[in-house]
Amino acid sequence: MVRLLRENGWAVDRISGSHHIMVKVGKRAVPVPVHGKKDLPRGLVAAILRQAEIKR
């Protein structure tokens, strides 16, 4: 998920615990949980993409 956001112009602003806080100019920050190799649940992926305004 972090790689997908970076490809769309987002950057890691800071890391707070196990969450990477992604930012983009003119947009609100989007938190992304990073738990090693565990997959993110489908609903969480949809919510992150919606917050980042990325259409897939």
List how many beta strands DSSP finds.
3
- CATH-level-2 architecture: 2-Layer Sandwich
Task: Give the percentage of residues in beta strands.
Answer: 25-35%
Uncertain runs are none
Q: How many DSSP helices?
A: 2
Fraction of residues in helix: 25-40%
Tell me the CATH topology.
Metal Transport, Frataxin, Chain A
Rounded to the nearest angstrom, the radius of gyration is: 11 Å
In N-to-C order, the SSE pattern is HEEEH
Q: How would you characterize the largest beta sheet?
A: 3 strands, antiparallel
- Structural class by SSE content: alpha+beta
Mean pLDDT level:
95
Using the alpha-carbon principal axes, give the shape.
globular
Question: In a nutshell, what does this entry contain?
Answer:
By secondary structure, the protein is of the alpha+beta class. It has one domain: Hypothetical protein (Metal Transport, Frataxin, Chain A, 2-Layer Sandwich), CATH 3.30.920.30. The protein has helices at residues 2-7, 42-51; strands at 11-16, 19-23, 30-33.
Descriptive report:
This protein has a single domain, classed as Metal Transport, Frataxin, Chain A, CATH 3.30.920.30. The protein contains two helices and three strands, in the order H-E-E-E-H. The chain has a three-stranded antiparallel beta sheet with strand order 1-2-3. The longest helix has 10 residues, at 42-51. With 56 residues, it is of the alpha+beta class.
Question: SSE layout and pairings?
Answer:
Elements: H1 2-7, E1 11-16, E2 19-23, E3 30-33, H2 42-51
Antiparallel strand pairs: 1-2, 2-3
